[in-house]
Amino acid sequence: MPDSMEKGPEEALRRILDFPTEYYTVLDISKDSSTLQIKRAYKKLALILHPDKNPSSKAEEAFKVVSKAYSVLVEENARRNYDLYGAGREATGLQSDPRMSRSRFHFVSFLPFLIILFCILFQCFFEETNDYPDFRYSPSGEFTAERFTEGHHVRYFVTPSIEHWLHSQDIENIQKYEKFIEFKHHHLSDIHQNLMKPYSTWGDSNLQPKPMNPNKLLTF
């Protein structure tokens, strides 16, 4: 292993400041050096580069680089991550892998579309797997008869024929029908609110939909 003290302070300063992120070069050691060799190399450089012992104006900067290189290479996990990802990523490792960062970016970019797709599939599922009469949340076509659910006062519209049918039903069947309307409205509203929020706020417990058990929504 080369001896930095034999090369002299000026050569050590030049090498360190020319390659500040090449930690093995900074300490003048090989990549297969043991922890003991790393400690010895650091002590040798500290003796000639410490600002109290070296009058050079560049000594303090070089000493900081040496200290940084030593703190990374002497710690097993940080050294492993440095060997894999380079300087500046030794603390986070895989999380700083550019490929993973790009993957997260693409996922977040498509997240709103995935949520909208889920919303559409959710709506289609309930429209094809329940026996409830059709309805709308806003007037359209024949759906002009305005109604409000009894529980949460959700506004919805039905056709005149469905309105007539509802008048012929007992209170229990109407309550089941309106619970389904409220359940569907609740999830559609939460999806819309989350889409309007910045990405950084997604996952906040205050934005999560309140639990509602669809198993309680019995068909008639």
From TrEMBL:
Domain J: 22-86
Record-level Gene Ontology MF annotations: Hsp70 protein binding
UniProt xrefs under SUPFAM superfamilies: Chaperone J-domain
A Gene Ontology BP annotation from the UniProt entry: cellular response to misfolded protein
SMART domains: DnaJ (SM00271)
InterPro entries: DnaJ_domain, DnaJ_subfamily_B/C, J_dom_sf
CDD domains: DnaJ (cd06257)
Keywords for the protein's UniProt record, in alphabetical order: Membrane, Transmembrane, Transmembrane helix
Signal peptide positions on this chain: none
TM helices/strands, residue ranges: 105-126
Gene Ontology, cellular component aspect: endoplasmic reticulum membrane
Protein name, per record: DnaJ-domain-containing protein
